[in-house]
Amino acid sequence: MLLIVLLRNLRWNKLQDAIPPEIGELKKLTHLYLSFNNFKGDIPVELANLQELRYLYLHENRLSGKIPPELGNLKYLRHFDVGNNHLTGTLRDLIRNGDGFPSLRNLYLNNNQMSGGLPDQLANLTNLEILYLDHNAFTGRIPDGFYKHPFLKELYIEGNQFKPGAKPKGNHKVLDLIDTEFLF
Length: 184
Fold this sequence. Notes:
Elements: E1 7-9, E2 16-17, E3 31-33, E4 38-41, E5 55-57, E6 62-66, E7 79-81, E8 86-88, H1 91-94, E9 106-108, E10 115-116, E11 130-132, E12 137-140, H2 144-148, E13 154-156, E14 161-162
Parallel strand pairs: 1-3, 2-4, 3-5, 4-6, 5-7, 6-8, 7-9, 9-11, 10-12, 11-13, 12-14
């Protein structure tokens, strides 16, 4: 018999190899923190079985392959962070239909190897507040819907090959410090 687990924090544990697909059997899991480990391989599609999942942190691993589009069926998922991995694929693959990721507020895809253009459907994620797309290989234009989005506060697009005129959205503050300022 599986125990009911609502929260699983396994950050910074030096875990490695693949994320076990059996994790999809923890049906009541609401928060899953697997960041800052050494997981490699694909993101298991079985994570889509976690229908109560609200927060999924997979950043700072060595995950590769495409993000399973089935994760878009997680109707309560609010925060999805897969930044700083080796993920490939396109947003069009991830956002296959207009009704995926209905509760998503924060999406971090930064520092991967994703490519292609930004589909107009991505702007239809009506609850989206923060979108990190920086440092991938995205191309084309930024759909106008992003600049008119009612809740989108931050859109990070640096380090891609967007057409001229593409602009980030939100407060992008850069702090420049000279090394000598740290000398006492």
